[in-house]
Amino acid sequence: MTEIRSQSMATMAIAASALKAQQGRMRVIAENIANANSTARTAGGDPYRRQVPVFKPTTLDGGGEGVAMAQVDPDRSDFRSEYDPGNPAADAKGYVKLPNVDPLVEALDMKEAQRAYEANMNVIETSRAMESRTLDILRK
């Protein structure tokens, strides 16, 4: 009986680590969306740079292997530029650098993170249901 319990707990711990990682991913995506139209504070300066979460495998207590968000790296792709000579952030030629954030890409990443989150919630719910059903069978 102890082995069944430990396997169930290991499954839940792995899924919980993935939930935490996806939650962090959604937070980074939300920050990107919030800053999609921001400009630099100074003329010719760089605007907000899109952030990208980096995941790594991690060993959990009990021997299972889960996932964690290791760090958040800046996206090194080029900034967009727009001609707006009246903008305080415009350079000498009248161009304003805009963030390298594409709201459509961010929306799709958010949807993917939500689906991964939901899938891991289903793993936890299924594991609990199986554990409950096993206990019901043992009681009879």
Structural class: alpha+beta
The total count of strands amounts to 4
Shape: elongated
Helix content: 40-55%
Overall mean confidence score, pLDDT: 90
Element-by-element helix/strand order: HEEEEH
Largest sheet: 2 strands, antiparallel
Q: Output the number of helix runs.
A: 2
Which stretches of 5+ consecutive residues score pLDDT under 50?
none
Strand content: 15-25%
The Rg value, from CA coordinates, equals: 22 Å
For the termini, the CA-CA separation is: 15 Å
Describe the structure.
This protein has 140 residues and is α+β, with helices and mostly antiparallel strands. The protein contains 2 helices and 4 strands. A two-stranded antiparallel sheet has the order 1-2. The chain has a two-stranded antiparallel ribbon with strand order 3-4. Strand 1 and strand 2 form a beta hairpin. Helix 1 (2-34) runs antiparallel to helix 2 (103-139). The longest helix is centred in the C-terminal third of the chain and has 37 residues, at 103-139. It is elongated, with a radius of gyration of 22 Å. The protein starts with a helix and ends with a helix.
Give a quick precis of the structure.
Helices cover 50% and strands 19% of the residues.
Structure characteristics:
two-stranded antiparallel ribbon, 4 strands, elongated, 140 residues
